């Protein structure tokens, strides 16, 4: 596995070195290129603005320091939002992340119960 896409909450777990990250996930992240979607950065900033979490002012710099790579949103990824497996998710950020994972052919690392039921391209971050 060369590349993986991190769900928004997993990004925070990685930056915090959270014990919620499973040993298999930690081992995988040690050798894989881990990507963070522009959608996740957007989602986390929205949650910070609403007071649902605190982000450090240098959040984007911390992503780079952690050697996490940027995944921009492309037209092809946005077009994949209409696929049946993607339509099952109501959260627009989850839908976009899943579509990106499918289009880019990289697993989405998440602990989200709804996303873990997706038919493909999903790994449980707690394992």
UniProtKB/TrEMBL annotation:
Name under which the protein is recorded: PIN domain-containing protein
Highest taxon of the lineage: Bacteria
Q: Which Pfam families does its entry note?
A: PIN
Keywords associated with the record:
Hydrolase, Magnesium, Metal-binding, Nuclease
Tell me the GO molecular function terms. hydrolase activity; metal ion binding; nuclease activity
Q: Where is the PIN domain?
A: 4-119
Q: Which InterPro entries match?
A: PIN-like_dom_sf, PIN_dom, PIN_Sll0205, TA_system_RNase
């Amino acid at each position: 596995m060369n590349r993986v896409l991190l769900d928004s909450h997993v990004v925070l777990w990685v930056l915090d070195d959270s014990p919620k990250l499973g040993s298999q996930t930690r081992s995988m992240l040690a050798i894989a290129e881990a990507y963070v979607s522009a959608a996740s950065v957007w989602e986390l900033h929205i949650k910070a603005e609403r007071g649902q979490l605190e982000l450090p002012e240098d959040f984007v710099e911390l992503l780079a320091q952690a050697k996490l790579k940027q995944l921009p949103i492309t037209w092809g990824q946005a077009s994949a939002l209409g696929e049946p497996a993607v339509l099952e998710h109501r959260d627009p950020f989850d839908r976009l992340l899943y579509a990106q994972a499918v289009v880019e052919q990289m697993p989405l690392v998440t602990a989200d119960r709804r996303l873990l039921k997706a038919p493909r391209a999903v790994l449980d971050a707690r394992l």
